Amino acid sequence: MIEGLQLLFIAAAAQGLTVDSETIDLFPERPEYCRTSEGRDIDLLTVTLLKNDRLDLSAYSIPAVVIIDRDWIDVRSKAAPVRSYKQDIGYAAMPGESLDLDLSIALYQGRPLLHWKETFKHRAARLGLMTFKPNGHVEPLCVGGPTVTVSH
Question: What is the arrangement of strands in the sheet containing 101-108, beginning at the earlier edge strand?
Fold first, then answer.
């Protein structure tokens, strides 16, 4: 339930709607920023998450379609000959680790991104954004969220 409310909150903020402080206090542990490798923070409340599991990237000058399949992406070129690029984002999100992830297509400042969120049990959820390069491949843009392991 909270996850659905978080997505609703993010979508409302992206549309310029305001939320009172009581609603904000419901999510005191929610990471609101994602930090780039250069140390710049991206406010996650300005990122719009889409329900689509596929997006035509042509409108963003990338001649390809991205398709999400669990924690994999399949990027299919639209140019002849058609080529397909598949990547396990669980390995790409945090190099050296294999993460269980939920993936979403996101929009930020008019460009498409890939949003990932860790779903592994007993661990606080790390998350991040990846950007699409002109060839359709992805590269990390930012990482956020707590890194504390939860024990029971």
Answer: 41-43, 33-35, 138-144, 127-132, 111-118, 101-108, 48-50
At 31, the amino acid letter reads P
pTM, to two decimals:
0.70
Residues 111-117: contacts with CB within 8 Å, 24+ apart?
111/60, 112/55, 112/57, 112/60, 112/62, 112/66, 113/47, 113/141, 114/66, 114/73, 114/89, 114/138, 115/47, 115/49, 116/71, 116/89, 117/145
Strand partners, 82: none
List, for residues 86-132, the tens digit of each pLDDT value: 887 877 777 777 778 889 999 999 999 999 988 876 566 788 999 99
